[in-house]
Design brief:
The chain has one domain: Alpha-Beta Barrel (TIM Barrel). With 268 residues, it is α/β, with parallel strands linked by helices. It has ten helices and ten strands.
Length: 268
């Protein structure tokens, strides 16, 4: 496992397990299995409707809570300062935990700055170990920086080989914020596993296309949180740290960048 150090000194795993489409007993079992596979970062959100199951999966895994990096996100139901304060306590209760390792404002709601202020207060109180945002473009990020007391530790955004946002990643890094990728496999928007460039590089390294797609982001300093319910894919996705892409690989993969969101995010 590799880690990225957030600007407050917290160590965040470089790869995590995403849970957005997992529900019920399957979610509990998959989270537990992912942790037993080696994952230590588990990503959920109020919007996913599975926080309780994620908390149960953490407990079922048998791994101590302090060894798990648990992320969740507040959605539109908590889009104000007062509502966000209540949302933080609700997340703690639903996840059945005394603290959350990383809490994000899920989307660029009109009230995202006031929501973030509630996160800052909870961070100061020790309820949250780290705070950040999600799906925030550079303009909105700069607006937040101009008024916030705590620089966001993380911005979780769409990032994959067809739209890696590497220039934005560098900008965020300069300001003290780590980029984290959702949809590293495009969530079916592109046939990434049949991509000839990735297949060629995968054959060269004797790896899978999925591993190459994830490694490209990871090697560029982007945290990845792939999602799967299959144990063999959990193990495959996790195995990123025993090889590196060379400059020719990075250059070839870079040519896949279409410069446009596949989901309609981040437009000015």
């Amino acid at each position: 496992m590799e880690y990225i150090t957030l600007h407050n000194g917290i160590q965040m795993p470089a790869i995590g397990y995403g849970t957005w489409d997992l529900r019920g007993k399957e979610c509990v079992d998959c989270v537990a299995k992912a942790i037993q596979t080696g994952y230590r970062l588990i990503d959920t959100a109020v919007m996913y409707g599975n926080e309780w199951e994620v908390g149960e999966g953490v407990r079922k895994s048998g791994i101590q809570r302090e060894d798990i990096f648990l992320t969740t996100k507040l959605d539109h139901r908590y889009a104000s300062y007062e509502k966000a304060k209540k949302g933080i306590d609700a997340c703690l209760k639903t996840l059945q935990t005394d603290y959350i390792d990383l809490l994000l404002v899920h989307e660029p709601y009109e009230e995202y700055i006031s929501m973030y202020r509630a996160l800052e207060e909870a961070y100061a109180e020790g309820k949250l170990k780290a705070i950040g945002v999600s799906n925030i473009n550079q303009r909105l990020y700069d607006n937040l920086l101009s008024v916030c007391k705590v620089i966001p530790m993380v911005n979780q955004v769409e990032s994959h080989v067809y739209y890696p946002q590497l220039s934005y990643q560098k900008y965020l890094q300069e300001k003290g914020t780590v980029m984290e990728s959702w949809a590293p496999f495009t969530e079916g928007r592109r046939r990434i596993f049949q991509e000839p460039v990735l297949k060629k590089i995968a054959e060269k390294h004797q790896k899978t296309v999925g591993q190459i797609a994830l490694k490209y982001l990871s090697q560029n300093g982007i945290i990845v949180i792939p999602k799967t319910a299959k144990e063999e894919r959990m193990q495959e996705n996790f195995s990123l740290f025993d090889f590196s892409l060379d400059e020719s690989d990075l250059k070839e993969i870079g040519k896949l960048n279409g410069g446009k969101s596949l989901f309609g995010w981040y437009e000015p």
